[in-house]
Predict the 3D structure of the following.
Amino acid sequence: AQTVTQSQPEMSVQEAETVTLSCTYDTSENNYYLFWYKQPPSRQMILVIRQEAYKQQNATENRFSVNFQKAAKSFSLKISDSQLGDTAMYFCAMEYGNKLVFGAGTILRVKS
Amino acid sequence: DGGITQSPKYLFRKEGQNVTLSCEQNLNHDAMYWYRQDPGQGLRLIYYSQIVNDFQKGDIAEGYSVSREKKESFPLTVTSAQKNPTAFYLCASSIPLGLAGEADTQYFGPGTRLTVL
């Protein structure tokens, strides 16, 4: 069975600093996709970044980047130059067979 | 403006009643999904549909039912058989994997908060 684990229930970071959120997963598949979603207090789920498992290059989207370690089944999210608007719950998710499996989430608080 | 809409935003139900949550999308996506979110937990898949007139059970389908008569619409009924229906419900849609040649990215609606009184 596919599982996704986020071991950090809560994290905080000072504005303008860098923070890394951890995610590990378990799958026997070779081709799959990984995602990070952000859920701010409005509860709208917003796609942050995605990674195809067959690509070795780590995905980046502006201040957001991932460290994808396929052999270790690790998919961490790095947020650079943190902003107050980054305060949210962050979910790691893995896609297989057109379905998503989510981790339990990490609450990130950005402090001024 | 393309997107996914869910209604109502808040819904209250008395015990023993069935209620239906609406989900509509104008993104021309084939696949649609329903998730349940409880406090301190990630999203769990209730039902999904990859094409009109077809749908599959997810991990927690008991006590729920769906229909997919139109591509744009995927309503979820929470029946009286659902033991603990109070939760936040999210609908999502996507282009099925393989059709667009890219990752099956799911896009979410704003959600419906259901409370059982």
